[in-house]
Structures are given as C-alpha cells and as structure tokens.
C-alpha cells in the first residue's frame, strides 16, 4: 500500500514553516526568535487556535506578522483602540506590506478605498474593531478573499471588557464563523488562570496551543507609597517629579488617574513642573486626544495625566515612570499599565500611591449588573422584531428593535450580546440581529443574570487583591507571579521597593 498523498495545502504549510527563520532575518532583521515567538508562529502556520501570553515589549506582534506574511490570504487583526491599530498598521507598512485600517476614524472615502484594496488582494493585513465587524458587512468581503489568521490583540479585553464596557467582544466567535472559521491567534500580556479560561470560553477556542513566557521584567522597580488624602498624594507626586533620584526627573512619564476630573486637576496644579504636562481621557474631543498623544509620543519629554483610556496603543520605549495616582481595579490592570514603562529594557520606576479612601471609588465602578427581566424583554423584542421586519432572513436592525422595546438602546444592545454569547441570538452584520431560538426559559435568563452578578463579585475580589498587594511586605514581583501562576527566574537582584535591590546602572 502506497503512502497517502498529502494535500497541497499541507505541503505549502510545511514549506512555509521552514522559511520562518529566513523571513525573520530578511523582513525583520533578527537573527533569532525571542522566547515563545517561534512556537507561536509555527502554531499559526499549522492552523491551530493559539493563546499567547507574553510580557509587554517581548515581541507579541511578530507572532502574527511573520506567519501573516508567509500564508496565503488576508490576516485580520482586531485591536481595541484606534491608536493601537494605527501604530501596528504603520509598522506593517514599514515592512513594505499594505495594511488596511477599518474603524470609526476613517472617512467614507478612505473606507471605500480600503475595501477595494481588500477586494483586489492588495491588502495583506486588515486592522479593525469588534464593533466594525458587527456593524458592517466587512466579514462577508473578507470571507470572499479568504482569511488566513484571525488575530485578537489584547485578548484579555474579551474577558475584562466584553460583558460590560465593550460587549461586541462577546460576538467575536460569530464574526469568526462569518469569516470562514480561520484559526484564532489571541494575544495578551495579562491573564490570570481565571482570565485564560474566560478568554477561551468567550472566543470559543478549540484545543488552543498555550504559550506563556513569564511576566517578570527585572528593569522595572515596583514601589508603593502610602498616602492619606488628596493633598498628601498631590504633594508626594510633586516631590516624585522634582526630587533627584535614580531616574532623571525630566524623562517621559504617565500618571494614571481614576477619573477625568483628577486628570485635569493634576495637569493644571502641576503645570509648573520643569517639563510639559499633558492630559488624556475619553471625554476629550478626538482632535484634542490626538494632539495630546502626539505631543507625548513625538514632542519633548512630558508627563501625561491620563485615565486608562490611554495605554493600549502606546508603544513608546523610553517611558521612565508610570505612576498610579489612584488604586487600579485589579492586578491585571495594574500590570498592564505599569508595563508601559521601560519597554527599551532600561531601568524604569512604577509607583503606586495607596490611599484607603480610593477603595470606595473602585467598588463603585465594580457595581452594576444586568437583570433577568431585561434579558427576557430583549429576547421578546428580537422575536417580535423579526416577525415584523426580518422576513428577508437578514435579521433586524437595532434601530427598528428600539422602536418596540421599553429598554434603552445601550441596555438592549448589551442584552442581545449576552444572548448571542449563549446561542440565542447572533449579530448579522451592518448593526442587524438574527434570532437563533424563538423561545427562552426564565432559567436561562436567570443564569445569565447570575453570571453578571458573579462578575460584579469578581471585580470586588480583584479590588481586595489589589489592596493586599499595596499593603504587603512581600516581594512585589513574587506577588504578581503567584497571581498569574507564572515564574520567571532572574539572576538579577529584585528591584522592587520591598526587596530594595538596585542595579549598578541606576545607583
């Protein structure tokens, strides 16, 4: 009996895998892979669902860029922020490859041009958002040309944002089906074991290849400064930027604040620092946000006072300080934000100001959940809407559904996305919704509501973990390793405030 012939696609994949190392050198100028990169690229080349957990600055982007260049078809990258997509697309273009960006920042003319680039095969990479995949017919166009990899960047957003802040993340598995079921490459720097389970569940990953390279970054010094009241915190912040220390005071820094009001107050009160003070938050006009970000990225060294809206798209290697003026909501959020310091590998300081009065604000943010009756009402609205407007099999628009629903538009949309995550509804593109099951039991909606309440409790637990970190005398890197259930040994002396180690280059 002869040896069965391998399909041509297998030969192509094997051949492409052998070329990874040479393409790494030719296209990216690197002689060797960083830890985890080759494994991630190989898994993507083999068509496997893959979950990559790598520390900030460890080269996650190459894990999709390299196989995306090698494989036939377009690589679709879901990015949570416009600035992040723009930065990644710019890097792709520097490699001499065309990248299309489809999001709300683009004009109608630009969108039309990018769609033509996709249709003609010119665009090898397409950067978009969960909302764009749901609210347009872009999935249909991409499926026509063929998708090789479906990349979910900052995949922790599916868990941390999906249920409340960015519910379209819950529908990405529906988008995958509409794209022709390409393999998913999900990437993040921050995921506890519980978050990993949630990512796999939300994205419906199939037996994913797991790649984790550890979280410890020895060049970052982790400190906590205990404060009481706003006056003391503001004074301590001023001292931090004026004192002579192991880091120069006039280097780029980010100060994270819990509210827009605090950002603006600190920007104004500390405007007399010997370096520019900038502000960034979600309530600013887009033009002002862009202006502030450009000044920070390309201008003289400055201090940026920002909410957590500033960060995921920030690839500035020489940030020397990240300060948390207010208590973050979780260790995941803290690590993600603190990790924006020192991406060039040089010493950087990450300082958390801890005032127990901040706990109440975070617990307020953690409250709020959808209830069973709202879910039942949303499902009833969808059924009635399909009966009235959806006879063409193309679903019904959210605008039409709102006409017959007592729920507010945002609540209705959130409920539909919760139902979609459980298989009772599905996004149909162009902002339309399809009903998958005409009936729903109260036990189901009660269960979804109970899950929502549990997430609120999880957020409260996360705050308690953040408080324990702030008050602990244990090595701060060890605390983070225990939380993320990783270990990454280093032969360098720990530089966290509790251990007190200081490297020679910053003595």
Indicate the topology.
Elements: H1 8-18, H2 20-28, H3 37-45, E1 50-53, H4 62-70, E2 74-78, H5 82-94, E3 99-102, H6 108-120, E4 125-128, H7 130-135, H8 138-145, E5 147-152, H9 156-160, H10 172-178, E6 184-188, H11 193-203, E7 209-212, E8 220-226, H12 229-242, E9 253-256, H13 260-269, E10 277-280, H14 286-298, E11 303-306, E12 321-324, H15 331-338, E13 348-354, H16 358-365, H17 372-389, E14 396-397, H18 398-403, H19 409-421, E15 425-429, E16 432-435, H20 442-471, H21 476-484
Helix pairs in contact: 3-4, 6-8, 17-19, 17-20
Radius of gyration: 24 Å
Secondary-structure-derived class:
alpha/beta
The major β-sheet equals: 7 strands, parallel
**Strand order in space, largest sheet:** 3-4-2-5-6-1-7
Question: What is the beta-strand fraction?
Answer: 5-15%
CATH class of the largest domain: Alpha Beta
Q: CATH topology of the largest domain, what is it called?
A: Rossmann fold
Please identify, by name, the CATH architecture of the largest domain: 3-Layer(aba) Sandwich
The CATH homology group name of the largest domain? P-loop containing nucleotide triphosphate hydrolases
Number of helices: 21
The residue fraction in helices comes out at 40-55%
Principal-axis shape equals globular
Average pLDDT over all residues: 85
Distance between termini? Answer: 72 Å
Strands, total number? 16
Q: Count up the domains.
A: 3
Query: What's the oligomerization state?
Result: single chain
Contiguous low-pLDDT stretches (5 residues minimum) are 1-13, 503-507
Protein name: DNA 3'-5' helicase
Catalytic activity: Couples ATP hydrolysis with the unwinding of duplex DNA by translocating in the 3'-5' direction
GO molecular function, one term: four-way junction helicase activity
Keywords: ATP-binding, DNA-binding, Helicase, Hydrolase, Isomerase, Nucleotide-binding
